[in-house]
Amino acid sequence: MKERPIVSEQEMLRQREFMKLVKAMDIRPQSYHIVSMGCQMNERDSESIAGMLSEMGMAAEPVRENADLILYNTCCVRENAENKALGNVIWLKELKKDKPELMICVGGCMTQEKGMAAMMKKRYPFIDLVYGTHNLYKLPEYVYRVLTEKRPVVEVMDIDGEVVEGMPERRRNHFNAFVNIMYGCDNFCTYCIVPYVRGRERSRTPEAVIAECVRLQDEGAQEIMLLGQNVNSYRGGGAEFAELLYRIDKLGIPRIRFMTSHPKDLSDELIHAFGELSHLMPQLHLPVQAGSDEVLKRMNRSYNREHYLELVGKLRAVKPDIGLTSDIIVGFPGETLAQFEETMSLVRQVRFDAAYTFIYSPRTGTRAASYPDDTPYEVKSERIQRLIDLQQAISLEVLQQQVGERETVLVEAVSTRNAGAVGGKTPRGHMVNFPGDASLIGKFVEVEITSAGRNTLRGRQIMTEE
Ligand code: SAH
Ligand code: SF4
Ligand code: F3S
């Protein structure tokens, strides 16, 4: 991975000036609502967006229709993600008819797709601002321009990408935080659009990452999730990912997790970290994508089934109770029934705690989009259903094995289904719901697991005498 330029401090100060200018304007939006789609990388970006908009004097508005500025942070990893984003944006046109001063902004991965910004400019002139993944930090300048020039601003940069430090931020909560350690992806899996829309791999320096972690710790962070499309290829200031983890572990933040890891770069040092680091949680998301060597090769994943299974063996030797999760694609072009069965057998063999399963979705500009694909969609649907059924049965068995255990849960929120219950995660990443109230949010609670549902555990708080 090459060292990449850092956006200059001077430029970031310039953006701060635009924030002040917007804040001082009478005609500016007073409130904002962000719709964050896609992965955690986007969620983290949305925290920076919220930070910038707050600095511009706008208040967060929970109801989309009531906001003066609506921003869509889009995803395009699969066609349905893109359709959802476009559908939502088109719907805003109606809203704007009743509220002409509404400012509509669209950014993120979808707008970075080739030709997309031009198409949006032409077909959706009611959108006030279109920006891409590489110029998010210029949001203040663009908002200022929309307000002063009174016409749409469409700017997407076609570059490899830079590292941006020092954007304002407004985090979703104080107790568990996302920390980006690297951006972009150089792997070019043949089905995937991410390398095209997120640019080349580039890492933050270990110093910048650690300074952020220390700050979060001071603000009360109990858990941090290190983020990158492929954290294993982190290389900042000469340090590899495992070294970075050892340094972060020393800070003493109770829980550390990270995602996503690519099996081809999962080093022995990193595997050993699971045995040695006291704050690293026993959980790893290690997407396998497929169980057949032939399919893996055509996906350009650079590992085979045997290597993947070997990694799983090593991880479990170091940490027997590690919770492994995965992403799996069904119906990759040319996938035969026999090859699909190899995915099924791998899933039976590994017994993931959970797996996110997707039907292959062709993405314009990727190599696989030109591969012949003669499997009918119905057949792909049947296959994915079989895989889902299998994984659900395994997940249930894994969860049932936790019943009777005593676990430390970091409480995240009041349960959406039951106001008298709260939910949080065990070290292994299993969600547990148990009776409790909002006062427990952000705290560690000892819980006895009493039963297992399809995706979550239920438990009760163990009352300790004080
Ligand atoms: N960087 C991460 C994944 C990012 S995308 C990694 O490599 O693990 C998240 C998941 O979406 C991928 O793991 C893959 O399973 C799925 N995915 C990506 N492109 C896809 C496509 N064109 N069709 C279907 N699923 C896709
Ligand atoms: Fe996409 Fe592959 Fe990069 Fe993951 S590693 S983001 S699947 S190209
Ligand atoms: Fe989607 Fe972009 Fe993430 S395409 S999955 S939001 S990196």
Key features of this structure:
466 residues, OB fold (Dihydrolipoamide Acetyltransferase, E2P), six-stranded parallel β-sheet, 21 strands, binds S-adenosyl-L-homocysteine, binds iron/sulfur cluster
Task: Tell me what the structure shows.
- The chain is of the alpha/beta class and 466 residues long.
- It has 3 domains: 9-155, 3-Layer(aba) Sandwich (Rossmann fold), CATH 3.40.50; 176-400, pyruvate-formate lyase- activating enzyme, CATH 3.80.30; 406-461, Beta Barrel (OB fold (Dihydrolipoamide Acetyltransferase, E2P)), CATH 2.40.50.
- Helix content is 35%, strand content 21%.
- It is built from 13 helices and 21 strands.
- The chain has a 6-stranded parallel β-sheet, sandwiched between helices. The protein has a 5-stranded mixed β-barrel with strand order 17-18-19-21-20.
- Helix 1 packs across helix 5 (139-149), helix 9 runs parallel beside helix 11 and helix 12 runs parallel beside helix 13.
- Residues 77-78, 191-192, 194, 229-230, 260, 262, 287, 289, 327, 329, 358, 360-361, 363 line the site of S-adenosyl-L-homocysteine (SAH).
